[in-house]
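Thread: "does anyone have the structure for this chain?"

Original post by V.I.:
We have the sequence but no experimental structure in hand. Need at least a predicted one for the grant figures.
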Amino acid sequence: MTLRQQIIAGFAVLIIPIVLVALISFAVLGRLGGAVDAVLLENERSLQAVADMDVALERLDSAALLALLGRKAEAATIADAARPRFQRALGFAEGNLTIQGEEELVAEVETAFSSFDQAYNALVAAEPDRARTVYAESFVPAFERTRRGLQELRVANREAATEAGTSAGSMAETAQWGIGIGAIIALLLGVWAALRVSRQIASTYNAR
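Reply from O.Q.:
Generated one for you, tokens below.
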């Protein structure tokens, strides 16, 4: 092997690990970004659905209070807008199941809201003297159960977002370690290549 070829080989030994480290780092970081973005996007959508259901539930509660006061026309206007909003958000949540246990949580919300809706209808249909009893014994427990289910669904999605962030940190740390180790290897190989070429140059010079 000529001196020129040895110099080229030395540079190749130095460059190849650097290129490999860079490619691996880009791959890890690309996977990291894509995975985290996907989880956060789906969680954000689920949280928005929970927020919509929460608002709709509160409005239905307001409608029930108006019905208790005998203002059933106003109550009906509010309920007619709030009920479809809740059902649309619930339907979206059912189609956006992305974390473990979410299906069961959404099913619980659906069951609780069904009981809540029945209690609301019974409240509106009841005579004034009976309506307060229905409100206390049926409507309020169903309302609390539905709201509790929404809170559990909200917490589950927030915890999933936190876990995604933790996973992202772990992957980023792995990438940093890989870059650091690759840089050390490249440095050592560079020193080795430089020493080898230097010895060859010295040998060639002394031979002359």
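V.I.: this helps a lot. Helices lie at 3-68, 72-94, 102-125, 128-207.
O.Q.: and The chain has a mean pLDDT of 81.
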